[in-house]
Specification:
CATH architecture: 7 Propeller
Order of helices and strands: EEEEEEEEEEEEEEEEEEEEEEEEEEEEEE
Strand order of the largest sheet: 3-30-29-28
Helix content: under 10%
Largest sheet: 4 strands, antiparallel
CATH class: Mainly Beta
Strand content: over 45%
Number of domains: 1
Length: 326
């Protein structure tokens, strides 16, 4: 059935781009994504709060926007960063939001008030990744200074470092049990760190080119990496042994997110699409098209019903996704 649409004309330099806006009622029609507009420059990352009712997005405009998923409206704008917001992560209880910028800093905000709780000069150069530990007691950050560092989110004080990388650290993730941190770097190297020992128990060059994204499966048994080879691979979280090379998914993925049930992976790609991949074999199950430029971040809602994506076209999109086929 045809529905009327409004169109948003944007004049950028000498180029005119045409984007469809979401319907007035704030929800997508016929399974189309809802488009959230608010960033003045490239949107670079997204993160869902626990429960999935709130989304945070960060951009090249140095702004963090908080979105209410039910109304699809922005409820707050968090400021204080001086450069591009390159990474976001909510604490497990949803009360804090950590952010990393291109100019050294990691900041921690109180979600309820928007107040800055901590400001940390975390790295000598840009911060590419931030993650909360599953118990909420640590923040891990990775930077272009080749370091993985740990921080106390309550005080902003240093809580240790994980050494070994000889290239910029682009991505990191905690295992669901909090015992392991996986990190990937510009040289294509994968590290698995034992958090208690603060030492690497596995390291290997697993990609020919830079690792851009990394994620643990929800059950903690598998680590999936995406690189600029382009290639997507899966490894045993216990041993680092390669489990699969997803030959059917030879795409340049900038960001990953597992579905809550672990059956699918959302991958944001350089060609502007969001791919829903089978976690078992990497087969492409769905291709979500709409972004006009590369997809920089993806996040699967804890409810499993929505995938959020950020793009260099400045937009955030909320894609309704059906349950996995059984």
């Amino acid at each position: 059935m045809l529905r009327s649409r409004r169109w948003w004309w944007i004049l950028l330099a000498s180029t005119i781009a045409l984007f469809p806006l979401a319907p007035d009622r704030g929800a997508a029609a016929d399974g189309d994504p809802v488009v959230l507009a608010g960033h003045e420059k490239d949107a670079l990352c997204v993160a869902f709060a626990p429960g999935g009712a709130t989304l945070a997005s960060g951009g090249k405009d140095a702004a963090i926007l908080i979105w209410d998923i039910a109304t699809t409206k922005s409820t707050a704008k968090l400021t204080g960063h001086k450069g591009s917001i390159q990474a976001l992560a909510f604490s497990p209880d949803g009360k804090l939001l950590a952010s990393g910028e291109m100019y050294k800093m990691v900041k921690v905000f109180e979600v309820a008030t928007g107040k800055e709780a901590a400001s940390i000069e975390a790295h000598g150069t840009g911060v590419n990744a931030v993650r909360f530990s599953p118990d909420g007691k640590l923040i891990a950050s990775g930077g272009t200074d080749r370091a993985v560092k740990l921080w106390n989110p309550a005080t902003g004080e240093a809580a240790g470092a994980l050494d070994g990388h000889k290239h910029a650290v682009n991505a990191l993730a905690f295992s669901p049990d909090g015992a392991t941190i996986a990190s990937g770097d510009e040289g294509g190297n994968l590290f698995l760190f034992d958090l208690a020992e603060r030492k690497a128990r596995f390291t290997a060059k697993v990609h020919a080119k830079a690792i851009r994204c990394i994620a643990f499966s929800p059950d903690g048994t598998c680590v999936v990496t995406g690189a600029t080879d382009p290639a997507i691979k899966a490894f045993s979280a216990a041993t680092g042994e390669e489990r699969a090379d997803f030959k059917g998914a030879e795409v340049l993925a900038n960001s990953f997110s597992f579905a809550p049930d672990g059956a699918r992976i959302a991958a944001g790609t350089q060609d502007g699409t969001v791919l829903l991949l089978s976690a078992a074999d990497g087969k492409t199950l769905s291709t979500l098209k709409g972004h006009q430029r590369p997809v920089t971040g993806v996040a699967w809602s804890p409810t499993g019903a929505t995938v959020a994506s950020s793009s260099m076209d400045r937009s955030i999109r909320l894609w309704p996704v059906p349950p996995a086929a059984k």
